[in-house]
Amino acid sequence: MENLQDNVKNILMVTAFPTYGAGSGVQVTALANSYLKEGKNVAIITANNRTDFDRIPGVKYHIVPFKSEEENPQIIEGQCDFNYLMFTTHTESTANFWDASLSQIREYEQAFRKAINEEVREFKPDIIHGQHNWISTSIATETGVPVVTTIHGTDLMGFERSKEELQKIRKALKTETDPEKIKKLKEEEEKYNFYIECSNRAAINARKIIVISEAQEEKFKKLFPLAANKVELIENGYDTSKFYVDKDVNKEDVIGSLVSQNTPDGKIDLDYDKLVVFVGKFADFKGIDVMLDAAKSYEENLSKQGEKVLTLVVGSGQLEDQLKEQAKELGLKNTHFVGRKNTDEVREIQNLADVSLIPSRNEPFGLVVIEGMACGHPVIGTNAGGIPGILNINKEDISDKSKTYVTPVGVLVPMDDSQALSDAVCDVLTGKDKFDKDFIVDYTKEHYSQEGITKKILGVFDEASKGSKKNSHSVER
Fold it and tell me: Distance (Å, rounded) from C-alpha 232 to C-alpha 234?
């Protein structure tokens, strides 16, 4: 058998999003770092609307340029005249696949095809690691280079939504008589057909498919049965050099430096007893609205017990104004929106937290779950998506989605149940539910360190590359 080091030397990562600001971007950066440590050459094709972002020394970056929504956007040569497209939202883009026109999608497709073909010729990858089963990965499978695709979850949601939208459009076409409206519907029909075709092509043509949770594996196999035999379950990992127990942090420096976006003076009262933290983008499936309702309840209940709880909401996104208005209407006095923070700032906040909340309606994996655990505290998450796979470490029966389950590393609560979430927070913060923080840290490092996860992925690359001719890189179109 060929040595893995010789068989797969050049890894080209293709992501339709920036390498920061969202879970998949963070994961791409962590993986690229770990590939370098394993002696690989790494190039990343990434969408972006600016060039001044953090880069890993030694990694080649190829930007697919888009137009920023900022007042004075950076002009990048060859940029698309719209922002990079998202499934939900991003900290620096509100553009999405659903509102994009057919002409924009064609421009988007050609921009990625140009970038991928250039890197296949110049970088000569032995493997392409595609992120999301979507347009850019479909294009990557045209090149003749073996493709391994990681499913992130929003791509599966996108595939399902495309099929639903297509049904609505075809139903509308049966009764529509206005020529202009028919033309628009036909363009929308072509767009959603294209999304579905790309997803199917990407799944069928990839050598291997990596899924990051058992729930995701089940869903992928149901949506793409012809590719079911290619699936490998490898959960996400976290960068142990970025998230760890830091005993030097203190609330005066860390919390004291934060600016509240929803108080008149921006100040945050440091006279608190317990700290609750949410970190994530402000998208509907993250369930932040449920968390705010829960905060109203647990703030009041714990106040009666003499405990003052501070809640920090870290992140940003399209729902920001709506969520801040909800917090205002609820009269939340100790819940503060503090904006998006970089990795080091998040780690410091996580190290001060007594508990992290993940109230998602559909969380494909939940990288922030293991990042919080790595910083030494339990996590309360919903019994949905990939979260149970992380928190239910003893693999107990948690099939009753209406119940709350306490595990050695956190608590699983029913989805969309603010009272259950509030009760769980109260039980954790009052010590009714007890946790061994050293155990949580050790367990997380043992099972989710990026180093261990990367070795598993490289094994998949090795398997996928077998049978491909060395340095044989064809380019179509």
Answer: 6
CATH of domain 4-237+450-465: 3.40.50.2000
Q: Which two tokens stand for residue 451?
A: 């180093």
Give bridge partners of residue 278 from the DSSP assignment.
Answer: 313
Query: 45 pairs with which residues across the strands?
Result: 14, 62
Q: What is the 3-state secondary structure (H, E, C) of 170-194?
A: HHHHCCCCCHHHHHHHHHHHHHHHH
What is the CATH architecture assignment of 251-448? 3-Layer(aba) Sandwich (3.40)
DSSP string, 271-302: --SEEEEEES---GGG-HHHHHHHHHHHHHHH
CA distances from 298 to 197, 311, 404, 414 (A): 47, 10, 16, 16
Residue 267's identity, in one-letter code, is K
Q: Which amino acid is at 406?
A: V
Residue 46 in 3-state DSSP? strand
Q: What's the one-letter identity of residue 143?
A: T
Euclidean distance between CA atoms 359 and 473, whole angstroms? 45
Q: Which amino acid is at 300?
A: E
CB 45 within 8 A of CB 147: no
Please say if the pLDDT value at position 15 is more than 50: yes
Bridge partners of residue 16, in order along the sequence:
none
- Examine the pLDDT at 471 and tell me if it is beyond 50: no
CA 383 centroid distance within chain:
18
Which stretches within 355-417 are classed as H helix?
Answer: 367-374, 387-391
pLDDT tens-digit readout, 394-427:
999 999 999 999 999 999 999 999 999 999 999 9
CA distance 247 to 258: 19
What residue segments make up the domains of the chain, in order of their start?
4-237+450-465, 251-448
Which pair of structure tokens corresponds to residue 403? 């119940």
